[in-house]
């Protein structure tokens, strides 16, 4: 579409009409029209069929939609004339690692649902071990092709990209390939901290959020010690019971139900004695930890790790000392 002087302004929609006839249709867009002069001349709709692509004029423009009269249904998308800066509504996408050293990937992209699918950002970040942090998006529209800077109130936080040791901004644009992103690295995050997004040469932030420690946090760090004989051993900051309780509290109700199912149906040859079913069925998270510690003692940790794997909570397995150091943020 750039060859025709247009840029994307709304999602591509494949619309079909089963019966009857429709006189008009409203298609969504993500452009802020407050500063757009003569919007009817700037907006258009992409029409796609077996004969090729065509650009159609719109009959009305609202803050969230354009109206197309007498539509012939086919895959369609709202377009905007290129060549002058416009403001768009944007998404902020945050992903975090689940390791000792916190790393965040922060994306700033136009509010196009297709971008997350086309670039497979969720799948890509997940394949690297990153997890989503849900945060609100900017309320105000942001100007395309402007540069934006991300900063943190945590002195230990390192924000990239950088050039010659100085922070550089990321240009807001419609990504043709893999979107660029900010990386925030914190080696030892010992408190909550905030992130702030500002346009270049402006002091007023357009977006702020707090990154808070989640239910799985620094209590699960372990460290190495030497006893009086010089032997290396492991010491944990919290007891096994406290650790298991914190992890159990992170399970949803269905996951806790699945955990108890696997606990009840373990092979007797595994060497773990059975806990009475009547006690398990009525147990909440804290009761379950008490039962397991009373029945299995220190082996409760080993058993919990096994069952976490069976209910697909490997992220909690990583929180155990000796597996990997972990810190959860939200």
From TrEMBL:
Domain DED, residue spans: 239-322
Primary site of residence: cytoplasm
Compartment annotation: Cytoplasm, Cytosol
PROSITE patterns registered for this protein in UniProt: DAPIN, DED, FIIND
SMART domains: PYRIN (SM01289)
Ranges of residues in domain FIIND: 1-225
Keywords tagged on the record: Cytoplasm, Immunity, Innate immunity
Record-annotated Pyrin domain positions: 232-326
Hydrolase as UniProt keyword: no
Protein name, UniProt field: Uncharacterized protein
């Amino acid at each position: 579409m750039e060859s025709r002087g247009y840029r994307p302004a709304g999602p591509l929609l494949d619309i079909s009409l089963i019966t009857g006839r429709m006189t008009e249709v409203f298609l969504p867009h993500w452009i802020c029209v407050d500063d757009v002069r003569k919007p009817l001349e700037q907006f258009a709709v992409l029409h796609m069929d077996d004969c090729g692509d065509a650009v159609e004029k719109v009959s009305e423009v609202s803050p969230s939609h354009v109206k197309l009269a007498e539509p012939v249904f086919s895959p369609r998308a709202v377009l905007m004339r290129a060549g002058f800066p416009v403001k768009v509504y944007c998404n902020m996408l945050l992903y975090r690692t689940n390791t000792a050293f916190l790393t965040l990937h922060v994306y700033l992209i136009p509010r196009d649902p297709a971008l997350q699918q086309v670039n497979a950002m969720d799948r890509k970040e997940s394949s690297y071990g990153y997890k989503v942090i849900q945060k609100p998006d900017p309320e105000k529209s942001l100007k395309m092709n402007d540069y934006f800077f991300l900063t943190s109130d945590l002195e230990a936080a390192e924000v990239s990209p950088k050039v010659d040791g100085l922070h550089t901004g990321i240009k807001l644009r419609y990504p043709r390939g893999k979107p660029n992103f900010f990386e925030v690295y914190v080696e030892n995050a010992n408190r909550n901290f905030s992130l702030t997004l500002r346009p270049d040469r402006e002091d007023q932030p357009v977006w702020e959020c707090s990154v808070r420690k989640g239910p799985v946090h620094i209590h699960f760090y372990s460290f190495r010690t030497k006893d009086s004989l010089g032997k290396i051993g492991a010491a944990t900051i919290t007891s096994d019971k406290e650790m298991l309780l914190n992890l159990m509290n992170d399970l949803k109700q269905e996951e806790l139900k699945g955990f108890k199912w696997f606990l009840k149906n373990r092979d007797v040859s595994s060497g773990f004695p059975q806990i009475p079913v009547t006690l398990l069925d009525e147990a909440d998270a804290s009761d379950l930890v008490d039962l397991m510690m009373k029945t299995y003692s220190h082996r409760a940790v080993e058993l919990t790790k096994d069952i976490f794997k069976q209910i697909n909570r490997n992220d909690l397995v990583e929180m155990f000392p000796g597996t990997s150091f972990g810190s959860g943020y939200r």
